Amino acid sequence: APGTEVLSVQMPFTPIGSAEAAAMAQMLPQAHTCDNILELPNYHQALLAHGTQAAALPRLLRATIQDRFMIALHSCDGYGLDEVGSA
């Protein structure tokens, strides 16, 4: 339908070993705006590999995702398209 868009969420990162799992837990989401794709590191797998207990997993997973999204949003420079209209 006109005016609707599809956002694809992918988790393409697979850690091999505990060092990569620890590194993946620190990765930020990546957006590919041309294709409407949002790539998320597999924070669930990374937290499990780090030894997170099952009871704490939902809370820690939510906190990790929220933290990484906030860092990504606040650290983004963007494309500078907002300045086009003010020129």
Overview of this structure, please?
It is built from three helices and three strands. With 87 residues, the protein is an alpha+beta fold. It starts with 7 loop residues before the first strand and ends in a 12-residue tail after the last helix. The chain has helices at residues 18-24, 43-49, 57-75; strands at 8-10, 30-32, 37-39. The protein has a three-stranded mixed sheet with strand order 1-3-2, with no helix packed on it.
Shape: elongated
Range of helix content: 25-40%
What is the number of helices?
A: 3
> H/E element string?
EHEEHH
Strand content: 5-15%
SS class? alpha+beta
Q: Ranges with pLDDT <50 over ≥5 residues?
A: none
Q: Summarize the biggest pleated sheet.
A: 3 strands, mixed
User: C-alpha Rg, in Å?
Assistant: 16 Å
Compute the average pLDDT. 80
Strand arrangement across the biggest beta sheet: 1-3-2
N/C terminus separation: 34 Å
How many DSSP-defined strands? 3
Summarize the structure.
By secondary structure, the protein is α+β, with helices and mostly antiparallel strands. It is built from three helices and three strands; from the N terminus they run E-H-E-E-H-H. A hairpin with a 4-residue loop joins strand 2 and strand 3 (37-39).
List the helices and strands and how they pair.
Elements: E1 8-10, H1 18-24, E2 30-32, E3 37-39, H2 43-49, H3 57-75
Parallel strand pairs: 1-3
Antiparallel strand pairs: 2-3
Helix pairs in contact: 1-2, 2-3
